[in-house]
Write a sequence for this structure.
């Protein structure tokens, strides 16, 4: 009995040390994990304003979908639905730009509509000046991104893209495969929303809504060291913090 108790104690101690050692390796400058309802469980620098890179594309797609334009409209060699998929899955900048250019009234009206949506959500620290995320002036906070993720989860097209590990699109009679920028899709958790981002100013970024063993979680990671660290850090935060 004593040996069993000692073994259990050693296992618990090892797990505790392992957990702490991984936590110390979190490079994200700002992060949080929240319940599905938005209640924050744990966070660090969650109200710090930071560049959000291609997380911007969630707002672009939400705005485009709200315009109720036909998804099967042909735009150059793609349909509008394919452009949405490319913007979210491949994080393709040109696709996001074209979606905004083809918005009713053109790109200026698209950006006005994006920021109007931001205002409707009551977000005072989120600002968007272009649709791709390439600008350092597209900014938000981890806290405000919770509401954007919650809203994104109500759009079937976004949920579908977030669950898709790769898409196959025919272009001029040839088929092309594009992988999701989140390689964990279809391998680890069940994702409801997933969008990555990276520019030099933002560092590695990702927002996720996903199901875990302890329930549905919203995770925001901003300013991770690079594109290789953001997802392992986000998954650790989701599962253990």
């Amino acid at each position: 009995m004593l040996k069993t108790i000692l073994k259990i104690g050693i296992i618990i101690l090892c797990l505790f040390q392992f957990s702490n050692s991984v936590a110390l390796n979190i490079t994200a400058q700002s992060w949080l994990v929240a319940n599905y309802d938005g209640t924050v469980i744990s966070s660090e620098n969650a109200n710090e304003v930071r560049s959000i890179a291609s997380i911007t594309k969630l707002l672009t797609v939400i705005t485009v979908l709200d315009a109720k334009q036909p998804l099967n409209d042909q735009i150059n060699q793609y349909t509008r639905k394919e452009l949405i998929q490319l913007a979210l899955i491949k994080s393709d900048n040109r696709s996001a730009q074209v979606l905004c250019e083809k918005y009713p009234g053109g790109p200026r009206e698209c950006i006005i509509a994006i920021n109007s949506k931001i205002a409707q959500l009551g977000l005072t620290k989120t600002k968007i000046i272009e649709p791709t995320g390439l600008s350092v002036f597209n900014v938000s906070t981890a806290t405000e991104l919770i509401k954007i993720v919650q809203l994104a989860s109500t759009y079937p097209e976004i949920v579908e893209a977030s669950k898709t590990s790769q898409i196959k699109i025919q272009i001029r009679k040839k088929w092309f495969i594009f992988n999701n920028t989140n390689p964990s899709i279809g391998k680890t958790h069940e994702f409801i929303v997933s969008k990555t981002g990276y520019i030099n100013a933002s560092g590695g970024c990702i927002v996720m809504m996903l199901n875990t063993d302890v329930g549905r979680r919203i995770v925001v990671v901003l300013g991770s060291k690079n594109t290789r660290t953001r997802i392992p850090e986000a998954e650790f935060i989701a599962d253990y913090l």
